[in-house]
């Protein structure tokens, strides 16, 4: 099992194997990578992870731990120990792949919340394309959980999250510029997940396209 040494106070991140509950491993790993070094990023990740734990109940049972794991792990690429090229979605996905995390979780982390448009702007599109981009309710739900959680881990509307993002980053930031390319795709993922949650809440499950297409 791979082990990666961390900085002082952060402990050791152990590689994943099938005998460990995936969602539990993800929560512990994200905490070890982010809690001491980036407490605000950790607060956001906790908010996203906890929202995913509730949202997952609307998904097929086999998909639930996948969503929860990806939610807890989605921002680990910001941790210094992860290394890489400085693009957190790609760096996190590559790190998880080295630790033996299931490919589906790695791919969800790689493409979360509109990463493709940002990657294209910074010349990393081909690298990101090494990971398949799953289309369907799990991908939608991950984007929803991230895009409706504030940097401090509090629930917010999608609109409020975008306003905060634009206020925090400069207009020239690739993350802001990418909104012109795929802002509607992000909004659509949020809407589909909100519709799914409403349909489950009121006892009329929506038809879910679980065709895990790649693109």
UniProtKB/TrEMBL annotation:
UniProt keyword annotation of Transferase present: yes
Q: Which CDD domains match?
A: HDc (cd00077)
Output the Gene3D superfamilies linked to this UniProt entry.
Hypothetical protein af1432 (1.10.3210.10)
SUPFAM superfamilies registered for this protein in UniProt:
HD-domain/PDEase-like
Task: Please give the Pfam families that the UniProt record associates with this protein.
Answer: HD
What the entry lists under InterPro entries is as follows: HD/PDEase_dom, HD_domain, HDIG_dom
This protein's UniProt keywords: Transferase
Could you identify this protein by its name? Putative nucleotidyltransferase with HDIG domain
Q: Which organism is it from?
A: Amycolatopsis thermoflava
Question: Taxonomic lineage per UniProt?
Answer: Bacteria, Bacillati, Actinomycetota, Actinomycetes, Pseudonocardiales
């Amino acid at each position: 099992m791979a082990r990666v040494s961390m900085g002082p106070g952060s402990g050791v991140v152990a590689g994943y194997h099938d005998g460990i509950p995936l969602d539990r491993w993800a929560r512990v790993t994200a905490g070890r990578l982010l809690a001491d070094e980036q407490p605000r990023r950790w607060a956001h990740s906790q908010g996203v992870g906890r929202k995913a734990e509730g949202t997952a109940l609307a998904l097929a049972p086999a998909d639930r731990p996948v969503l929860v794991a990806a939610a807890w792990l989605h921002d680990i690429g910001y941790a210094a120990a992860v290394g890489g090229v400085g693009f957190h979605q790609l760096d996190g996905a590559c790190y998880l792949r080295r630790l033996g995390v299931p490919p589906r979780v790695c791919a969800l982390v790689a493409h979360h919340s509109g990463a493709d448009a940002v990657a294209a702007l910074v010349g990393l599109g081909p690298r990101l394309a090494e990971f398949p981009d799953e289309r369907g309710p799990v991908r939608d739900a991950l984007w929803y959980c991230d895009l409706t959680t504030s940097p401090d881990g509090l629930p917010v509307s999608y609109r409020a999250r975008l306003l905060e993002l634009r206020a925090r980053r400069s207009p020239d930031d690739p993350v802001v510029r990418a909104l012109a390319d795929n802002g509607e795709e992000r909004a659509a993922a949020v809407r589909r997940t909100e519709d799914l949650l409403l349909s489950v809440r009121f006892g009329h499950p929506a038809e879910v396209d679980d065709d895990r297409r790649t693109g």
